[in-house]
Design brief:
The chain has 567 residues and is α+β, with helices and mostly antiparallel strands. It is 32% helix and 21% strand. The structure holds ligand LR7 and manganese (II) ion. GO terms for molecular function: carbohydrate binding; polypeptide N-acetylgalactosaminyltransferase activity.
Amino acid sequence: MVMGLARSFRRRRSTLLFSLVLLLLLLGGAYYFGFFNVTTSSLAQYSVRYLRYQHYKQTEAYREGPGEKGEPVYLEGEEKKLADSLIEKEAFNRIASDKISLERSLKDVRDPRCKSIVYPSDLPKASVVIIFHNEAWSPLLRTAHSVVNRSPPQYLQEVILLDDFSDKDFLKEKLEQYIAATWPDGIVRLVRTQERSGLIRAKVAGAKAAVGDVLVFLDSHCEVNTGWLEPIVSRIAEDRTAVLCPIIDAIDDRSLEYSGNGGYTTGGFSWSLHFTWADDSPRAIESPDYIKPIRSPTMAGGLLAADRNFFFEIGAYDPGMDVWGGENLEISFRVWMCGGKLEFIPCSRVGHIFRSSHPYTFPGNKDTHGINSMRLAEVWMDDYKRLFYTHRKDLLGTDYGDISERKELRKKLNCHTFKWYLDNVYPEKFIPDENVKAWGMVRNPDSGICLDTLQRDEKTVFDVGMFSCQNGGSASQVFSLTLTNELRREEACLDSSGQDGSRVSLRPCTGQQNQKWIHDKSKNTIVHQASGKCLDTGGQKSGDNVVVNTCSENGNQKWTMQHYLDK
Ligand code: LR7
Ligand code: MN
């Protein structure tokens, strides 16, 4: 009996030993064939990344050199001459940019209240997609470095440099080698398109390559600032249908100064379908919280974030749009109309070099902004597309390609109408031919001349002019007489001091008395309400001004409007 027990124990011990050896062999084999490499090395890589992130954060304030803390760089002598000679071609001061560290420090320009927000550690991870075509070396890599250095590693999946078929030599092997040497952990990777795609298709290519939960797009001449990513991923974790924009700070194209001037502003648009900044957005004024997301009717286009799946669900971008322009308003209208929302995130700050021209070619020399805008107007704006064509008569008849898939998308997503968007998202947007007393040309019948902006920049203050009436329709001759008696354009109102013979100017609408005009349809006069003076051609047949004068029966003071809405 005892013997039997001892034997069986020995047998069991040998089985145990055998199993142990087998296990060791298996583990050893697995290790030898690299089974554990992935996890152990990625853990090690993550720790290294985390240490680097912490190190940069702790040492940022002590960095010294040109441009550090976002300070401007001013050049002198030969360097300045060289810089000046390159500025026109490169559209910014590359020499100054090259002098600045690729990892320069920035001032933390956030509202102090942003700094005390504590974010959970388990938020979605972002893929940051930086698209570029023939971008200069230092802005491109400074963008990438700023993202790696200022994004908490737990929220950063990857940085994708999406090369849209650049042909510059330094963007080939040299760039590949730099990336491999600088980020051996693979956090930054390069993806190239096989043909020139234009920035819109390039963004889609980048989005397709990305694997993170959240997509963030950046232009290739940005610097993200401290704490930029946390409020973005945390807002998307709260609401996957929110498409987000950081506050955009200007980086000066000459001195590379990081201005921190982003401010509390959101986006609008003009009927010519250009993006505009709306400084006095009622949504911002209503809730001057400076931390919470602010709803915005539109976005500038380059810097945005969205849940990756949501981005594709609502139709990514229109792949029929070429090179540059239009996609920013298209995605803005679409997001709102199809169940999403657009917000600016005040605690997220990103700098962007604003350039006065494009340092790249437009294949075929096409007006891609115009044609892309036709596509967006045709698909998304319903009848309101008329207001776009008022500005762009020249485009009528231009081939804008096939839009059937985008129309299909709008149907499939069961999107709201453009009127819904105007009423609910952008109620303060002025519609020149709705809810007004009259609109169109303001005509002096005796002379056949009309009020005309003479195509001056309506963001500035200038004298309104006159030009022979363009019966085919000219955007610069369209004025509206509003229900509150303003005589106005999209943004600017006719304004007069009321002095005899003084010129009438166009300036931002204020609702004040000096911008009120009474149009008497029976006498064909337009009277400045505050002074009682009459709008007067001054006897000119065209010219850069109109005046007000004491009212008389003179033909110079007769005016009719093209369309009357009050019967
Ligand atoms: O064919 C091209 N392929 C590209 O990959 C042409 C350009 N690009 C890249 C280019 O290298 C850059 O990184 O696309 C990016 C944008 O081009 P920019 O910098 O010439 O454009 P922008 O800053 O003048 O234009 C703004 O409007 C565009 C409309 O199509 C895009 O939406 C840009 O992303 C957008 N930029 C911003 O919104 C940044 C903030 C500025 C403001 C307001
Ligand atoms: Mn840009």
